[in-house]
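Report of the visiting student (M.T.), summer placement. My assignment was to run the structure pipeline on a short list of targets and document each run. The first record concerns Transcriptional regulatory protein.
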Amino acid sequence: MPEPRDITVLIVDDDPVVTAALHAQVNRVLGFRVVGIAHSGHAALAAAARFAPRLVLLDLHLPDLPGLEVAHRLRRPDQPPADVIVISGRKESATVRAAIQRGALYYLVKPTRAGTLEQTLLRYAATVAQLESGGRFAEQQEIDRIFRSLHLDQGARPRSISAATEQAVLDALSGVEQDASAHELGELIGVSRATARRYLEHLAERGLVEGRPRYGPTGRPQHRYRVR
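After the run finished, the structure tokens were exported:
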């Protein structure tokens, strides 16, 4: 059974090879757990009613119902609320637009790299955490940050930030039990404290990492970071 803090996932695809690969990829991402797999539209709706997943990874080519129809039915009042991310080989703008109109939060094109799926899931988790934090947003910028954290914006990565090191920092931080400082994380992946701090701050701006000051006996705060 998934732990209470896990984001539960239903995978919907008519290809058993694809569902097996997605199952393995999702379960490797910290904080996510696959609770069901469906190979048809009707099976997907039944599984959604049974398992009440938080997130559905949905293919659009299904043997009985169009994937877009499944996405539409998942939004009905008689279905448990679920977010949808489409994973499809279709690239037509009309299809992407229809998926958005039917409530898809994001659209991934097959074949999807494991790293791309992982980043998408982590961004989704960061968005969920921000939306469930309670209270109200004081500034438009806070709402803008939520929308930015959900969508992969590779063009927004500064030239000083490499994708490989960014992923290494995120992987290392995901592996620590609670949190870590920039110095500790730098030692884990073999970079300087300043480099680790730069990447951690970048990840914090993207909504993937949370940084908090911790005050020691000297009164000087040390910033500690953890994955959202």
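Residues 15 and 141 are 41 Å apart (CA to CA). The mean pLDDT is 85. I thank the supervising group for their guidance throughout the placement.
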